Amino acid sequence: MSGIHARLGVKRRINAAGTLTRLGGSLMDETVLDAMREAARGSVDIGELQSAASRAIAAATGAEAGLVTSGAAAGLTLAAAACIAGLDVARMARLPDTRGLRNEILMPRTHRNAYDHALRAAGAVLVDIGHNDRGTGAGIRGLETWEIEAAITPATVAFAFAANPENAGDLPAVVAVCRKHGLKVIVDAAAQLPPASNLSAFVTAGADLVVFSGGKAIGGPQASGILAGERDLVASALLQQLDMDVAPARWAAPDLVDRAKVPVPPHHGIGRGFKVGKEEIVGLIVALERFVARDEAAATAVLRKRLETIAAALPDRKTRIVPGRVATLEIETTDGPRAVAALLAGDPPVHVGERDVARGMLVVDLQAVRAEDDAALAAALAMAT
Ligand SMILES: *Cc1c(COP(=O)(O)O)cnc(C)c1O
């Protein structure tokens, strides 16, 4: 231990469990840090900086516009707020009180997850549709479009789609039904990167708003995210996130905002507590540019090589490299929970993926492991498994 962690009495950990928020998410590259350091030393108009971010996000995603949020979860709250309030400043001022407004968001039971709270935080009421036969193993039927139509009421405003590689193929049919009924489609693609092609895939499939985490694969600041989509919806989200302590007579609306539709500045909105600093906005832009420019095949090859070296240090264990969207290493142990406890008790503590630990399977994900820690990680795994 050294430096800031030692001074604060905080353990530095080896996080081989992926870009988990509770362990600090991704580790930033020096280029991103340099840009953030420079950003920290200059005053800017945050609305103007967010308009620059919008151009960068639009270029990376193919969406009309984009916004840097304080994370994908904040992006979901702002997405719901944008769908419910639009560019109406009085509605923005009322949230999360949505009585009398179109406030229902449809969500298939197969997509429900613990981040749904973020949608409800804007005042949205979630309406479950369909069954969860695939999740429970009861059957093979998934989301069917008639179930969407049957759930629509005059208060329905949007559809929330939690994307994963298995359900992504359902999105075009969902979009078609929602378009027909004037509903917006919000896609949670927080962790659907890489591949970088997914930055545009959901927009291309017709989603109105898509959220990504900045602190996962993109490698931006931990507390950053992206909301990309239709211009007026992103403008609504921006207005509900920005500080609005402005003199109305001198309000210079960000470029993204169509002043003809927003004649007066709104008050601080529902997203004011999710403010994003100049450092995070700049860091996210630079990290996103790097992520888009990255040679994905070369990055995968480097990752595989590192995993192979770690596997070679565990010669008598059963190991397997799983290609996946991000290659990982599976290690079979006789007692998964005991191995995880031993790794966590080590110095430094080591975190591995615990999804399959009950089956005795540890998963090593190197996205948030510095290459110089690989040897210590391998040694810890050899001791604990
Ligand atoms: C990580 C994650 C989020 C939250 O992302 P943050 O950037 O940490 O706010 C939301 N939805 C899903 C599916 C996620 O995996």
Secondary-structure blueprint:
Blueprint: H1 3-8, E1 14-16, H2 30-40, H3 46-61, E2 65-69, H4 72-85, H5 89-94, E3 104-108, H6 117-120, E4 125-129, H7 133-136, H8 145-151, E5 156-162, H9 171-180, E6 184-188, H10 198-204, E7 209-213, E8 225-229, H11 231-241, H12 278-293, H13 296-312, E9 319-322, E10 328-332, H14 336-344, E11 350-352, E12 361-364, H15 374-384
Parallel strand pairs: 1-11, 3-4, 3-5, 5-6, 6-7
Antiparallel strand pairs: 2-8, 7-8, 9-10, 10-12
Helix pairs in contact: 2-12, 3-12, 4-11, 13-15, 14-15
Structure description:
- With 385 residues, the protein is of the alpha/beta class.
- It has helices spanning 3-8, 30-40, 46-61, 72-85, 89-94, 117-120, 133-136, 145-151, 171-180, 198-204, 231-241, 278-293, 296-312, 336-344, 374-384, and strands at residues 14-16, 65-69, 104-108, 125-129, 156-162, 184-188, 209-213, 225-229, 319-322, 328-332, 350-352, 361-364.
- It has 2 domains: 4-24 and 295-384, Aspartate Aminotransferase, domain 1 (Alpha-Beta Complex), CATH 3.90.1150.10; 43-293, Type I PLP-dependent aspartate aminotransferase-like (Major domain) (Aspartate Aminotransferase, domain 2), CATH 3.40.640.10.
- The protein is 39% helix and 15% strand.
- Helix 4 packs across helix 11.
- Strand 5, helix 9 and strand 6 (184-188) form a beta-alpha-beta unit.
- The strands form 3 sheets. The chain has a 7-stranded mixed sheet, sandwiched between helices.
- It is built from 15 helices and 12 strands.
- It is globular, with a radius of gyration of 22 Å.
- Pyridoxal-5'-phosphate binds at residues 21, 71-73, 115, 162, 188, 190-191, 213, 215, 225.
